Amino acid sequence: MKKVKSYLLFISIISLIVSCNNERTVAPDRAVIAISADLETINPIYSFSVDEGVIDETLFLNLIQFEWNDETGDLDAKPMLALNWQWAPDSSSIVFNLRDDALWSDGKKLTSEDIVYSFDIYSDPIVQSRYYGSFKNLYKDYEEHIDLKKTFEIQSPYKLKINFISGSTPSLLDVAFPIIPKHIYEKLDRKSISTSEINFNPISNGAYKLKRWERNQMIVLEADKKSFLYNEEMIDEIIFKIVPDYNSRVTQLKKGEVDFCELIKPADTKDFTDLKNIEIKTIKGREYDYIGLSNIDIEKYAKNQNVYPNKLFGSAKVRRALLFAINRKEILSEYLDNYGELVVTPISSIFKSYYNKELEPIEFNPETARRLLSEDGWSDIDNNGVIEKDGVEFAFTLFIPSGNPLREFAAIVIANNLKAIGIEMKTQKLELGAFVENLYTKKMDAWMASLYIPVPLDLKTIWYSDLEKTPNNFASYQNAVSDHILNLLEKKTSIQEKRGLYLKLQKNIFQDNPVIFLYWIDDIIIHNSRLKNLTINPYGALQKIWEWKIQE
Amino acid sequence: MKNKLYRVVFKRIASSALVLLLLVTFIFLLVRLSPGDPSQKFLSPQLNPQLAEKVTKSFGLDQPIYIQYYSFILNLFSGDFGISYNYRQPVFSVVKDYFFFTLVFSFISFILQLSFGYWFAKFSFYRRGKLIDRLLSKISIITFSLPSFVVGLILVYIFSVKLDLLPTSGIKSIYFDDLNFMGKMKDYFLHLILPMITLSFAGIAVFYKYLRDNLNTVANSPFITSLRANGFSEKKIFKNHLVPNAIQPLISIAGIEFGILLGGALLTEVIFSLPGMGRLTINAILNRDFPLIIACSFIAGLMMIISNLAADIIKIKMDKRFIKELIN
Q1: What letter would DSSP give residue B152?
Q2: pTM to 2 decimals?
C-alpha cells in the first residue's frame, strides 16, 4: 500500500509539471541562428572566430559600412557612424563628419574621442588586440602603437581628421575598425582589459545590444531602441543558439526551432527541397580545398634555412602532372553534389573585376600527366608499379586534418588517381592542432587543407616569397615576378590598375602550380522563409541583421 | 570504530592529495609536450605574426618548462589555477557554472540508474529462470553495448522529430523568460527527459546486470537455504539478507560510475547541447587552453576520489569488517 502511494505521488508530481499552465506573456519577435560553438568573447578587441565577428559587427559599428558589389566583385563603402568623408587631394589625410545621433547603449553620445581611443587601444601592445599590427599606413612608434598626436586631429566632437604616413597608399580599410566606448574603457587598467567584466556586459553602439549570454546555450541580442538604426520593423530579439552537433542543427532547422543555419552539407539539402517554409542559398567562391605541396626541401630548410627544390614537388612540371592526374570533377560531383566549382587560381569568379577568364580549368587527363612526368625524368625502371628518378621513388604521405569526411573521401580518390600514373600516396590523419603546428613549422611535404579568401582580396599573406615574413606561405612558393606584382598591388587603389596586376598574377600562379588547387566549396545556407530582407552574398551570410524582418 | 574510520578517511585524504598532485603534474607535462600550441589561433593570414609572439610571451610559454612548472606549483598551492587562455577568466570561475550543471545532472542520472537498476533486478530475480528474466538479461547487454550517441539520436528522432513531443536540445527554450514559474519548471523538465534517458540508459543496464547476478549468487548460498529452512519469509530474506549482501560489490562500481558522471558526459552533452564539464574539457583540449585542461582534469580526478571515498564509507557502514581491509 505504501509503495502504491509513493508511485501515485511520483506520477502526480510528473503529471502536475507536464500539465501545468505555461502560458506566455506577449512574446517578442525572435530570429534564432544556430551556431556550432560558444563564443569566447564578445569584446571586439579580442574576437577571432567568424561567429564572434558577426556578433561584434552587430553590436559595434564602424565609421563606414562595407557592402558587396555584385557587379564589380568588390566592396563599396557606405556611411555608418560617419555621415560622410573627404579625402585630401594627395590622399595624405581624410576628414570624417560623424553622426551626432549615435549613442552608446548606456545613453552616452558617441564622439570623435571614442574613435581615437579605439585606435589607441587596438594598437597598444599591452592590450594584445586582434588588430595589433594592422595599422600599416598610420604613424606608429617602434612598438607599432599608433602615434595619436601625429595621426588624429579632433576638430570637433563630430569631426575628425586622420593623417596617413606620407607616401603611403591608404584606403578606407585602414580606418574600418569597430568603435569602443572611451568612457568605459578608460576606467580600466589596460593590462587587465582581457579579463575584465566588460567582456561579458558590453556597452555597444549598434542596432542591437546584449541582453543575455548563457554559456554554451545561447546569446540573446535585443533591439536597442536608442540606436539611430532602430526602426519598428526590426526583429525584437536575435538569438544565437549554440548547437554543437551538426545533426541536431539540421533537425532543429527542419522543426523550425532555429531559423538560420550555415555550412549545411550538400547531401542534406535534398531533405529540405520539399519543405515549403525553407529557403536554400549559397555563397560561392570564398573557400577552396587544395593539396599543399612543399616546393622546397623541408629537411634542408629546417637545418639551415637554405632553400633547395623539393625532391618530389620542386618542379612545376611535376606539380602540373599531378593536377592532370587528379579527377577533381569526380569529387565535386560525387561528394559535393556540384555545390562548388573547380579552382583555376586563388581568385574565384565572384571577384568579377579581377578574375582571369582566359585561364581554363585543367581537365582530368592521366595520359598528359604520364607524359609530363616522363619529360621530367620519372619512369618505372624497376617495374614495381612506382615511378622513380635518380633512385628516388615517387612515394609520399598526404596529411589531412581529422574529422573532415570530404577530405577523407577526396584522399581515397586522389590516391587511386595517382596510383594509376605510378605514384604511391599514403594518407595520414592528424588532429587539427597538430596539423596546424606542422603547417607553420613546415614539417609536411604534402597535405590537404582549405584556404579562405579574404574580402577585399589579399594574396600577399599567402603567396609572397619571403618565408620569414610570410608564415602562411606553407608551400614555400617563391617567384620574383609574383612578388613584384604583389608589391605593386599594395600601392594601387583604382580597380583598373589592380585588375591588370591581378590578371598577370593569376597567370603566373597558374603556370607555376605552387599547389594543386582542387575546388571552391559553396557555403550552403538554409533559412526559414519567415525571415525576410536578408543580405547573403560573398561578404558574408550574416550581415546587416538589423535590416532583417519577420513575415509569418 | 570511529577512530578507525577517521584514520581511514585521513589516510585516504593524504594519499588523494598526492594522487591529485601527480595527476596535475602529469597533465601539465603532457599538454606541453603534445603537438599544438595555444597561440595557434593567433596565427592567421589576417593577423600580424607578432601578435602570436606577444601572446605566447604573456602566457609564459616562452619560458623553459621547469620554470613554467615552478610557477604553476607555486600558484597551485595558493589555489590559483591560472587564467583560461580562451575565456580570459580565472579557470575556476569558468568551471563553476559547468560543474554545477554536471553535478545536478549527474546526481539525478545516478539516482535513476540505481533505482531502475534495482527495480529491474528485483523484478527479474522474482521471475528467475523465466522467459522475462532471460529476455531482460539479453536486453541489458544490448543496452550496455549501445553507444550513447546512438541512443540519443534515436530518441531525438522518435520523440522530437516524429512525435514532436519533446525538445531536441538545450536545457530551456528560447521563450523561457516569457513563462511563469510552473511553465519554467515544465520547460526544464521536458528539456531534460531525453538527455537523462540517454545518459542513464547504459548505467541502468550495468547496475541491473551486476545486482541480478549477485542476487543469484547470494541466493544460492548455504545461509540463505538455512534461513529458508528456518521459515523466514521470502520477502524478509530478500530485504534483510539478499539485498545487503548482493549490493556490497555494487557500491564500488557505483562509486566509480558516479565519479565518471561527474567528470562530464561528452557525447550526451554534445548531442543535446548541454553546458557540462565534458564539453568544456574537450573544447579546452582542442583549443590548447592549458590552465583550463588542468583545472578540468583536477575536478574530474577530485570527483573520482571523493565518490570512491564515499563508496568506501558506505561499505564500512554496511559491513564493519571492511575497515580492516582498508587499513591493511
Answers
A1: H
A2: 0.86
